[in-house]
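=== RUN LOG ===
request id: a7f3
mode: sequence -> structure
chains: 1
length: 135
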Amino acid sequence: MNLFAKHIEYKRSDLHNRYGGNRQSGISSSKNHPIIMLFSSAAGEEYGYQDSWYSDKEFHYAGEGQHGDMEFVRGNKAIRDHVMNDKELHLFTRIRKAYVRYEGKFEYDGHHIEQRSDNSSQLRNMIVFHLRLLE
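=== RESULT ===
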Protein backbone atom coordinates (compact mmCIF):
# COMPACT_ATOMS: atom_id res chain seq x y z
CA MET A 1 0.00 0.00 0.00
CA ASN A 2 1.32 3.40 -0.96
CA LEU A 3 1.20 6.27 1.53
CA PHE A 4 0.77 8.87 -1.21
CA ALA A 5 -1.36 9.26 -4.35
CA LYS A 6 0.61 9.66 -7.57
CA HIS A 7 0.48 13.10 -9.23
CA ILE A 8 -1.48 14.57 -6.30
CA GLU A 9 -0.39 17.90 -4.80
CA TYR A 10 0.59 18.06 -1.13
CA LYS A 11 1.52 20.96 1.07
CA ARG A 12 5.10 20.20 2.08
CA SER A 13 4.55 21.33 5.68
CA ASP A 14 1.65 18.86 5.98
CA LEU A 15 3.97 16.02 4.92
CA HIS A 16 6.49 16.99 7.60
CA ASN A 17 3.78 17.43 10.23
CA ARG A 18 2.64 13.86 9.58
CA TYR A 19 5.92 12.04 8.80
CA GLY A 20 8.63 14.26 10.30
CA GLY A 21 11.98 14.77 8.63
CA ASN A 22 14.06 17.83 7.85
CA ARG A 23 11.89 20.67 6.53
CA GLN A 24 14.76 22.41 4.68
CA SER A 25 16.63 19.51 3.13
CA GLY A 26 15.87 17.93 -0.22
CA ILE A 27 16.49 14.53 1.39
CA SER A 28 14.20 14.12 4.37
CA SER A 29 14.38 10.86 6.30
CA SER A 30 11.59 10.12 8.76
CA LYS A 31 12.58 8.80 12.19
CA ASN A 32 9.10 7.43 12.93
CA HIS A 33 8.18 5.96 9.53
CA PRO A 34 10.20 3.76 7.13
CA ILE A 35 10.36 6.44 4.44
CA ILE A 36 12.72 8.96 2.92
CA MET A 37 11.03 11.86 1.16
CA LEU A 38 13.02 13.35 -1.71
CA PHE A 39 12.17 16.88 -2.83
CA SER A 40 13.20 18.18 -6.24
CA SER A 41 12.92 21.81 -7.32
CA ALA A 42 14.08 23.88 -10.27
CA ALA A 43 15.23 26.43 -7.68
CA GLY A 44 18.07 24.04 -6.81
CA GLU A 45 19.76 24.78 -10.13
CA GLU A 46 21.39 27.89 -8.63
CA TYR A 47 23.33 25.46 -6.38
CA GLY A 48 24.23 23.09 -9.23
CA TYR A 49 21.39 20.64 -8.57
CA GLN A 50 19.85 19.61 -11.89
CA ASP A 51 17.38 16.82 -11.24
CA SER A 52 15.62 15.40 -14.29
CA TRP A 53 13.83 12.45 -15.79
CA TYR A 54 16.37 10.34 -17.69
CA SER A 55 13.63 8.09 -19.07
CA ASP A 56 10.00 7.41 -18.21
CA LYS A 57 11.15 5.02 -15.45
CA GLU A 58 14.42 6.63 -14.25
CA PHE A 59 14.93 9.91 -12.43
CA HIS A 60 18.37 11.46 -11.90
CA TYR A 61 18.53 13.14 -8.51
CA ALA A 62 21.44 15.29 -7.33
CA GLY A 63 22.81 14.43 -3.90
CA GLU A 64 22.99 16.85 -0.98
CA GLY A 65 25.79 19.20 -0.07
CA GLN A 66 26.27 22.77 -1.25
CA HIS A 67 30.03 23.14 -0.78
CA GLY A 68 32.91 20.96 -1.95
CA ASP A 69 32.79 17.38 -3.13
CA MET A 70 29.72 15.39 -2.16
CA GLU A 71 30.26 12.33 0.01
CA PHE A 72 28.13 9.39 1.10
CA VAL A 73 27.08 10.85 4.44
CA ARG A 74 23.69 11.88 5.89
CA GLY A 75 21.05 12.03 3.13
CA ASN A 76 23.32 10.70 0.38
CA LYS A 77 24.11 7.63 2.46
CA ALA A 78 20.41 7.25 3.32
CA ILE A 79 19.48 7.09 -0.38
CA ARG A 80 22.26 4.64 -1.26
CA ASP A 81 21.50 2.35 1.69
CA HIS A 82 17.69 2.66 1.80
CA VAL A 83 16.97 -1.00 0.89
CA MET A 84 19.43 -2.30 3.50
CA ASN A 85 17.82 0.04 6.06
CA ASP A 86 14.23 -0.96 5.11
CA LYS A 87 13.30 2.57 4.01
CA GLU A 88 11.21 3.52 0.98
CA LEU A 89 12.15 6.41 -1.33
CA HIS A 90 9.28 8.75 -2.24
CA LEU A 91 9.90 11.55 -4.74
CA PHE A 92 8.09 14.90 -4.78
CA THR A 93 8.63 17.79 -7.19
CA ARG A 94 7.96 21.42 -6.31
CA ILE A 95 5.10 22.87 -8.30
CA ARG A 96 4.72 26.22 -6.55
CA LYS A 97 5.65 27.82 -3.25
CA ALA A 98 4.97 25.39 -0.37
CA TYR A 99 3.39 22.73 -2.63
CA VAL A 100 4.82 19.56 -4.14
CA ARG A 101 3.50 16.86 -6.47
CA TYR A 102 4.05 13.20 -5.67
CA GLU A 103 5.93 11.43 -8.49
CA GLY A 104 6.05 7.92 -7.04
CA LYS A 105 7.99 5.35 -5.08
CA PHE A 106 11.55 4.79 -6.28
CA GLU A 107 14.54 2.56 -5.65
CA TYR A 108 18.25 3.40 -5.78
CA ASP A 109 19.63 1.92 -8.99
CA GLY A 110 23.17 3.28 -8.96
CA HIS A 111 24.83 6.66 -9.32
CA HIS A 112 27.49 8.52 -11.20
CA ILE A 113 29.77 11.44 -10.35
CA GLU A 114 29.64 14.69 -12.32
CA GLN A 115 31.79 17.79 -12.17
CA ARG A 116 29.48 20.73 -11.40
CA SER A 117 29.82 24.11 -9.77
CA ASP A 118 28.79 24.62 -6.16
CA ASN A 119 27.08 27.78 -4.88
CA SER A 120 30.48 29.53 -4.83
CA SER A 121 31.10 28.67 -8.52
CA GLN A 122 33.82 26.18 -7.55
CA LEU A 123 33.95 22.90 -9.46
CA ARG A 124 33.29 19.88 -7.32
CA ASN A 125 32.29 16.22 -7.58
CA MET A 126 28.52 15.84 -7.37
CA ILE A 127 26.73 12.55 -6.76
CA VAL A 128 23.87 12.00 -9.20
CA PHE A 129 21.58 9.19 -8.11
CA HIS A 130 19.79 6.96 -10.61
CA LEU A 131 16.37 6.30 -9.12
CA ARG A 132 14.11 3.67 -10.68
CA LEU A 133 10.35 4.15 -10.54
CA LEU A 134 8.72 1.11 -8.91
CA GLU A 135 5.12 1.61 -10.06
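=== NOTES ===
The longest helix spans residues 12-19.
The chain is about 10% helix and 45% strand.
=== END ===
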